[in-house]
Amino acid sequence: MAIIIRYVVEHKGVEKFVTADKKEADKYDKMLELADNFGEYIEAKGFELDAKVLEDLSIMLAKNAASVTKLLKGNTAQQVLAEDSAEVIELDKKKA
């Protein structure tokens, strides 16, 4: 019989992510915390969005925090998107 360790990321009472890798679980949990912060900030600035739209937007921003930072530093959207595409291609090569 095998013993399997699983890390479960729960957010607002809902199971969001399950993995055997603690670092992955911590990273996902941190991303969800950042998404919550984005959501709170957007609402505090007076934007009234549907709850699902706000959640999706906040998660997208959190998942792409490095790219958002580049945009805030003055890079154009085209530059950032090109870099994102290059990173995806590089990751695909590593998986193969």
Structure report:
The protein has 96 residues and is mainly alpha-helical. It has a domain at 64-96. The protein is built from four helices and two strands. Strands 1-2 form a two-stranded antiparallel sheet. Helix 1 crosses helix 2 (51-63). The longest helix is centred in the middle third of the chain and has 23 residues, at 22-44.
Content of β-strand: 5-15%
User: How many strands in all?
Assistant: 2
- Rg, alpha carbons: 17 Å
- Stretches where pLDDT falls below 50 for ≥5 residues? none
Which class of secondary structure composition applies to the elements? mainly alpha
Arithmetic mean pLDDT: 91
> What is the number of helices?
4
In what order do the strands lie side by side in the largest sheet?
1-2
First-to-last CA distance: 32 Å
- Helix content range of the residues, please? 55-70%
Largest sheet: 2 strands, antiparallel
Q: Helices and strands, in N-to-C order?
A: EEHHHH
Global morphology: flat
